[in-house]
Amino acid sequence: MRSSHLITRNSGVAVWRQIADQIRGDISAGKMASGVRMPPEVELATRFSVNRHTIRSAIAALTKEGVLRAEQGRGTFVANAKKLTYRIGERTRFSEILSTQVRETKGVLLGSSLEEPTAEVASALGMHSGMVIRIDTMHTADNNPISCATSWFDAARVPNIIEDYRATGSVTAAFKRAGIDDYLRQSTIIGARHADAEDLRHLKLSPGAIVIVATAVNVDMDGRPVEYATTHFSADRMEIAIGRQSSL
Amino acid sequence: MRSSHLITRNSGVAVWRQIADQIRGDISAGKMASGVRMPPEVELATRFSVNRHTIRSAIAALTKEGVLRAEQGRGTFVANAKKLTYRIGERTRFSEILSTQVRETKGVLLGSSLEEPTAEVASALGMHSGMVIRIDTMHTADNNPISCATSWFDAARVPNIIEDYRATGSVTAAFKRAGIDDYLRQSTIIGARHADAEDLRHLKLSPGAIVIVATAVNVDMDGRPVEYATTHFSADRMEIAIGRQSSL
DNA sequence: TAACATTTGTCCGTATGTATA
DNA sequence: GTATACATACGGACAAATGTT
Predict the structure, then answer these.
(1) What is the pTM (predicted TM-score) of this model?
(2) Residue B243 scores a pLDDT above 80
(3) Angle at B139 between CA B136 and CA B145, to 5 degrees
(4) What is the pLDDT of residues B110-129, one digit of tens each?
(5) What CATH fold (topology level) applies to the domain A84-242?
(6) Is B92 on the interface with A (CB under 8 A)?
(7) Which stretches make up the HTH gntR-type domain (chains A, B) (predicted)?
(8) A11 touching B, CB under 8 A?
(9) Residues B61-80 pLDDT 10s
(10) Residue A214 burial by Cβ neighbours in a 10 Å radius (0-12, 13-18, 19+)
């Protein structure tokens, strides 16, 4: 399809990192299945037209990330596997979406605060006065970190959301305790950027990694906004799907 | 909100490039309006905790990209502007989506071929036999490149798609000529990755840049697939929206 | 067992790029 | 602009582990 082993020099991005990014991309795009043996270092070196040591730097970085696994005398193998798919629709529930793809999902509360809403947050939540509760969370699938999020709620509407989330590890469950039995996804805006320092720490990524940023508004059954959230997904572990069915 | 002027060292990404990426991101996120004067170099240097020479390297790179504009004796100014929003729904038409945000959009045919479909393409188009036509296209908004795409079509269904696209610069218009008056977006899968060499060339990006990859299936009014396409958007110039209305 | 090819791991030195003072 | 320290990339040589003949 679309594969060019081209390296740009003097670009501020080290050659070993460009190669590592390309290999990681190929793996997470499914071009090399889990457990498959990589071509030997010398072959990769000629393919990318670089020194073997440069290939070794790239492999070392990917080994540290857990994407590859090198064995002396035998070769280097693909350790990681396929991407998860996060399907966005009217009913978007984190654990439900992934339940068919992984054994277990978990949500952890990283921090929280009661704060004055910014114009953006107030507008998204349709608020004219009052405070908002902000919670920072991190989510894992089968104990692999896949996303971290910041959510804002109207403090008057769900005053106990912090405690409820900590107890349940789920916004859906926390909403139920606050009397919000159901809610719908009103809008989602999707972008992508380099992972920042926080992303690197929470998602266990290495610098230069990419995160998909989804900014969403959830509304109750009367159409009133109840949650405004931005979620950062590791682009190597997750893709977003829209529409009725997968085409792949 | 979420802004850390944090730099990761020894990551394979030069500090000047990390700073350039961050400034470019801030600009396209709308944090600095078009035409605004940048803070002086010394201030940026203290803000990022780096040497002034390093800031100069970052600014030089962004000037070369056209994101900033340096004026003799006056200072450095933001040349570029806000992100465009690509709203995905049942009726997704490239030029219609952007018509309210830009003056003019254009589609250019980069290349085309008649080929044996891969399993992925055949499955997406619901084909069991026959050849597919592949076209590579590039799209601009007000003469700025914002996306490039590869599309596949059933050759038996739209045999003249290449000529028709070249003449009209639009899939919608080319479909009309083939008797397909209307079509709907069935599914979209969204991911993000580093720009490859082709992306860099077509979208005029610099290495390390990020592209949003949207893989879509369009169906005719009878629900039969008519187009399978993967589009690469520059993540700095575009974001994807889903749902009824923007929340921002 | 032994010899051999293959592949990863480690060491040397050298030139250039990056970042600081 | 100059000087210094470190990261990056290259070239070569050899050691260590593995599998095969």
Answers:
(1) 0.78
(2) no
(3) 120
(4) 999 999 999 889 999 999 99
(5) Chorismate lyase (3.40.1410)
(6) no
(7) 13-81
(8) yes
(9) 888 777 888 777 778 888 76
(10) buried
